[in-house]
Amino acid sequence: MACYLLVPYSVPGHVRPMLAVAAELSARGDRVWMLVSGGFVDQVRLAGAVPVRLDVTPDVFVPERPLGRDWFGYLVERLRRPLINWRAAVQLARVVPWVRPDLVVVDPMLAWADRVVRGGPVPSALLSTTFAGTPAALAEAARTRLGWVGAPEWWYRWHPLARRVARGGRLVLANAVPGLQPAAGSGMSLVGPLLCRDRGEDVGWRQRLAAASGRLLFVSPGTVFARGRRFFLQIAESFAGSSWTVVAATGRLDPVALGSLAPNFVACRWAPQQLVLSRADVFVTHGGMNSTLEGILAGVPMVFAPRSAEQWLIAGRCVDRGVGVLLPGPGKICGVIEDLVSDSAVHDRLAEWRAELTAIRGACRAADLLSTAVRSGRSPAGGLR
């Protein structure tokens, strides 16, 4: 029996892929610990792992509009971030000798965690919860978002994320599939999709979805690069009085801020995404890796409303493959989704891609590679930690 310590970035889109791996390792009889913020403790337990509560975590969000109502809080949080990261690093340095893992698996977004494990006696691996941040991948993402303004590939060789991923000898896993990984590198393994099923979901959601009449639009624009009140209100106004039922996961935004809504518009901070997608006809998403893979596997046409460079790249690749479209604006969504849901070619391409991804057992693949790393004392790429 091996012992693992998993250290994700404590936001939903980064914790959930690691939970899928933790559940697979635990099912094999391995001991798995996860260092997470308090909001994820129960989910870690349900996955069969042992949670270690982070003493302090940042409130990770990026306001939709510069100088908007959330901008001051964002700036304050950025100023607090170095202290928070330092305290988290101190805690991790204490946890490692206490847990005594055979392998530490770190999210490459966590520079503070990477510094701790690189300087310690325990072998480590990286698990990227989106495509792996190679210089080529980061450059392509920048070009997708900024066009010619994006820096050339050689510039990104000095990017902190690219340097962590490219550092020789360690196993690098990525929650990506070939169609969504811009450029692979030596020693990198694409193990996606790493989807964690919703655990402990409210049975009331099943009843609510069963009672929903007509076609269903699911709107879930993410939690970090969140959307504001205007975004949701424009969609609500577009569908007021229509035959569509709209379920919107507002994330940071309190649904109360939306005021009185039409009966066919259901707003909540969180929804069991995979369950809702099993009933949805169209999915409005930010284009994060997890949501995109869940949309493909559910066979649901997607309307992309990306904000970050990563999201723009993933959305662009899906649009090129013909499984979705970019959102021209929340107020114009009605015509877009009507065209999308009636396009048989979109459903055919989704069915093809869904068949490809269904055959991939991502969590098993990731667990196999991590087990090999533990048994050999070195990464399958052939180098020492």
Topology (SSEs and partners):
Layout lengths: L2 E5 L4 H16 L3 E6 L4 H6 L3 E4 L17 H29 L3 E4 L4 H8 L5 E5 L6 H12 L13 H7 L5 E3 L13 E3 L12 H9 L4 E5 L8 H11 L5 E5 L15 E4 L4 H5 L4 E4 L3 H10 L3 E3 L4 H13 L2 E3 L6 H9 L2 H15 L3 H15 L9
Parallel strand pairs: 1-2, 1-4, 2-3, 4-5, 5-6, 6-7, 8-9, 8-11, 9-10, 11-12, 12-13
Helix pairs in contact: 1-14, 3-4, 5-11, 10-13
Describe the structure.
- The chain is globular.
- The longest helix is centred in the first third of the chain and has 29 residues, at 71-99.
- The protein is an alpha/beta fold.
- The protein is built from 14 helices and 13 strands.
- Strand 2, helix 2 (41-46) and strand 3 (50-53) form a beta-alpha-beta unit.
- The two termini are 21 Å apart.
- The strands form two sheets. It has a seven-stranded parallel beta sheet, sandwiched between helices.
SSE order, one letter for each helix or strand: EHEHEHEHEHHEEHEHEEHEHEHEHHH
**What is the helical fraction, as a range of percent?**
40-55%
Spans of at least 5 consecutive residues with low confidence: 379-385
Classify the beta-strand content into a percent band.
5-15%
Alpha plus pi helix count: 14
Shape: globular
Mean pLDDT, nearest integer?
A: 89
Sheet of most strands: 7 strands, parallel
Category by helix and strand content: alpha/beta
Radius of gyration of CA atoms, rounded to a whole number:
21 Å
Question: Can you count the beta strands?
Answer: 13
Within the largest sheet, what's the order of strands?
3-2-1-4-5-6-7
